[in-house]
Amino acid sequence: MNKEASDLLPTAFGGPRRIVCMTEETTEWLYLLGQEARIVGISGFTVRPRRARDEKPKVSAFTSAKIDKILALAPDCVFGFSDLQADIAAELIRAGVQVTIFNQRSVAQIFDMLAQVAAMVGAAERGQALLLQYRERLAQMDQAVQAQIAQGRRRPRVYFEEWDEPAISGIRWVSELVQIAGGDDCFPELAAQPLGKHRIIADPGETVRRAPDIIIGSWCGKKFRPEKVAARPGWQDVPAVRNGQLFEIKSPDILQPGPAALTDGAEQLHRIVMDWMARHG
After folding, report:
1. pTM for the full predicted model
2. Cβ contact 106:194 at 8 Å
3. CA-CA to 187 of 20 to 30 Å: which in 5, 93, 195, 264?
4. What domains can be seen in the chain, in order of their start residue?
């Protein structure tokens, strides 16, 4: 190789140096990896970690983005999530930006996505160490549940509502985390549907018929109102309503398909379920 050609090569292969994260999970993950210096722009919905809002410019929502501001940051990579950001991704690609859109929907896919991001920024070892911790904790939860079942206690039926008007349930990674945490999702069949519009529960009476023992609300950025749920026609005889088992898990803790769901979200689910099992054995 002649000198001129060798001068064109980078001195180190460390992955992208200027990253825009259009959703929260990659921002949080890069901070956990100690790679936050690579982030030059974030989503305006980012609250994890809290300091990111003070340190990084906000250049996108979820289904919209400030393309001019993103381009002005001269990113060498943009991270996004899901088909809902496809149009944003296409516009950035046409402008010559490298874009990586992840589409993780299951717990296993979240683990895979996090491993990929860690490898991309040269932090594979740190990433694998964190992911191992997450796997071990989820396994401990499952073991605790099995111990309760061995003592004759049953799994509670859990209705998880990610939006109220219309009622939407069944998001896949949440459904799987409910199972790991010790519950049975009331609408497991909806977990196969990636789009919210295909997970709408058109008949509120169907939720009543499935008699959830626990109701958990996470209304995607809107405060969960248990009293409104309890006041729905016909819901007064639902076991969860009758026994006061209505809880909120904040959307950044569970609806973000990244480290938050695997840690804080799963922990909250597990505490709620284990408390119910202790009381209703």
Report:
1. 0.93
2. no
3. 264
4. 11-103 (3.40.50.1980), 141-279 (3.40.50.1980)
